Amino acid sequence: MDIDIGRNLQTFLSTIDQNKAKLIAVSKTKPVSLIMKAYEAGQREFGENKVQEMVEKHEEMPKDIHWHLIGHLQTNKVKYIASFVHLIHSVDSEKLLRTIDKEAKKANRVIDCLLQVHIAEEETKFGLSDEEVKLLVSPEVLDGLPNVRIVGLMGMATNTESEEQVKKEFRHLKALFEELKSTTNHPRVTMAELSMGMSGDYQLAIEEGSTMVRVGSAIFGQRNYSA
Ligand SMILES: *Cc1c(COP(=O)(O)O)cnc(C)c1O
User: How far apart are CA 88 and CA 70, in angstroms?
Assistant: First the structure.
């Protein structure tokens, strides 16, 4: 059955306060023809979790799109996106941050990054501990990395029916965000964006202070990985 992406998008946007949280439309696994429907309806921020897929879509699609890399990023793939990526949500190691700086320099850019914090109970989700986050925003690390800017934090809550659990995890991330906002004064750190919330928990995330929700299936429909 055909789905009306434009209408899904408008319906979704009517459920959020866009002054508080911006929509990153997660288009992974979806074809350009479908993503263009969202573009035609006015959407410009798109999220992808695989480098190769993002590169191909960037080549084919209009150049005023802001591409957000939201999935785990391997250091040897940074070079493919350094020239155009708008925001990397998933910085989860110092090694990766150093590689982004190096490739950004080659591309003559400063790349905006979010530090991904491990807030879920699941072991499988990537992310830094609070202590590792604090180390990465220190002058000892950042002074040597002039081509990256840390503009906020990202987190993924546990995939659970328990609203209390999800709320607790979002609150933890928000508290760390506020702590860093009041304690860091490095010129290349601004706690401006808090990327949290997906199709299943975006309303809770916005209530808890999200400024960016990463929403895929609620707009584009379920993903079919076997296709
Ligand atoms: C796929 C993905 C999303 C979107 O998930 P939906 O449940 O389809 O909204 C958000 N964030 C990350 C990191 C993802 O990989």
Answer: 6
